């Protein structure tokens, strides 16, 4: 059944060539087809075999179930082997036994082999042939049925391997897609953190400058506000460069210093405390703490400009706790920036905390709003 490895048209050509060879050996045998007696039996059997072979070649070879043509080939092969001992008519039974095993398994293949052998035995009795020849043919039919079963198993394993390969490929593609989405989310968080913080601060300064200008403030005061806006713009550029560096894998600024700088940039009353082992504010833990403070202060500027703020970073053996709370929030203190948010800030903070096993909560307090981050303790490098 090596024909399974070639295209359908090529396989059909080989099968037709085989049929032609079988027919030629029968037609030129000692007991050639005739219109009476043994020759008539050979003629009818050969005709049925040719029709069954053509059906198998042109139609049923693509099926995976048993069809009548296979049984017909087994019967015709056995009868031709008995009626024309010197011809190749027995090939029909050999093919039938193998085809049955390949299609539906060894049991059906052996059944077809038994049908072929039984027909051959009946023919041998009628035409007084050797019983040893019948036994040899029967063993050959059974051997081809076993070979067909082995080929079926090989085909099944090949199909399973192809299916496993396809599943592996899909899994790999899903993994790549997930990695791309995760990387896109990380880039989006960094862009949001930098732009939201720097642009919010710059917008607050411009709002204040506009208000001072409307009330006829002196030139020196306006110059100070403009200078402060320039400083925020420069800080925004520095933050952008740091964010790009972080995306490229460059070392980032130390978290304690970054948090302190964020606190110092706040325009209003702010209290800050950092308690504990600062060496634990490294890597992703430190970056997450910095970005949480940054986003929380940006939200204060947007929704409660000028509110009193308390920032606390508490580092304990159990983990890192960061809280940013604003108090004495007045409805009129909201900035015009309040409506510019897309809701990505809190989600970005939670996405940063989740891979570290952390949690982030945000919600109102009796006199303001509070953002709280908890990151569980991670073992220090070289320690437990």
Note down, in words, how this protein is organized.
This protein is of the alpha+beta class and 384 residues long. The protein folds into two domains: 2-169, no CATH class; 253-384, Heat Shock Protein 90 (2-Layer Sandwich). Helices cover 65% and strands 10% of the residues. It is built from ten helices and five strands, in the order H-H-H-H-H-H-H-H-E-H-E-E-H-E-E. It has helices at 8-27, 37-58, 68-83, 91-104, 106-127, 131-214, 219-247, 255-265, 283-303, 344-353, and strands at residues 270-275, 308-316, 319-327, 359-365, 368-376. A five-stranded mixed sheet has the order 1-2-3-5-4, with helices on one face. The radius of gyration is 43 Å and the shape is rod-shaped.
Order of helices and strands: HHHHHHHHEHEEHEE
When the domains are counted, the total is 2
Main sheet?
Answer: 5 strands, mixed
Beta-strand portion reads 5-15%
Total DSSP E strands: 5
Rounded to the nearest angstrom, the radius of gyration is 43 Å
User: Which shape, going by the Cα principal axes?
Assistant: rod-shaped
Main sheet: strand order: 1-2-3-5-4
Work out the helicity level.
55-70%
Question: Count the helices. How many?
Answer: 10
Described by its quaternary structure, the protein is: single chain
Give the low-pLDDT segments: 336-342, 380-384
Mean pLDDT: 82
- What structural class is derived from the secondary structure elements? alpha+beta
How many angstroms does the end-to-end distance come to?
Answer: 64 Å
């Amino acid at each position: 059944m090596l024909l399974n490895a070639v295209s359908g048209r090529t396989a059909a050509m080989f099968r037709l060539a085989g049929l032609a060879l079988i027919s030629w050996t029968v037609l030129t045998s000692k007991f050639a087809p005739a219109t009476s007696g043994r020759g008539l039996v050979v003629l009818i059997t050969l005709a049925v075999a040719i029709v069954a072979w053509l059906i198998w070649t042109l139609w049923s070879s693509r099926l995976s179930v048993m069809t009548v043509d296979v049984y017909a080939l087994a019967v015709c092969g056995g009868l031709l082997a008995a009626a024309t001992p010197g011809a190749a008519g027995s090939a029909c039974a050999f093919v039938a036994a193998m085809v049955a095993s390949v299609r539906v398994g060894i049991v059906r293949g052996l059944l077809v082999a038994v049908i072929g052998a039984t027909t051959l035995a009946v023919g041998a009795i009628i035409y007084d042939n050797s019983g040893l020849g019948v036994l040899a043919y029967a063993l050959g039919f059974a051997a081809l049925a076993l070979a067909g079963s082995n080929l079926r198993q090989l085909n099944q394993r090949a199909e399973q391997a192809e299916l496993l390969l396809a599943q592996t490929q899909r899994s790999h593609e899903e993994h790549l897609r997930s990695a791309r989405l995760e990387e896109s989310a990380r880039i989006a968080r960094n862009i949001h953190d930098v732009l939201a913080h720097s642009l919010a601060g710059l917008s607050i300064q411009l709002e204040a400058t506009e208000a001072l200008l409307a009330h006829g403030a002196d030139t020196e005061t306006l110059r100070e506000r403009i200078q402060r806006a320039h400083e925020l713009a420069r800080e925004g550029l520095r933050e952008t460069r740091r964010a790009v560096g972080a995306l490229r894998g460059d070392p980032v600024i130390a978290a304690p210093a970054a948090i302190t700088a964020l606190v110092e940039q706040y325009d209003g009353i702010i209290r800050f405390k950092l308690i504990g082992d600062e060496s634990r504010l490294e890597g992703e833990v430190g970056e997450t703490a910095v970005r949480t403070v940054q986003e929380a202060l940006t939200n204060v500027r947007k929704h409660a400009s000028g509110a009193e703020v308390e920032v606390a970073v508490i580092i304990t053996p159990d983990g890192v706790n960061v809280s940013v709370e604003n108090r004495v929030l007045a409805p009129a203190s909201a900035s015009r920036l309040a409506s510019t948010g897309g809701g990505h800030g809190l989600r970005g903070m939670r996405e940063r905390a989740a891979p570290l096993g952390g949690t982030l909560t945000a919600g109102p307090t009796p006199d303001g709003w509070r953002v709280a981050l908890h990151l569980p303790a991670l073992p220090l490098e070289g320690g437990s």
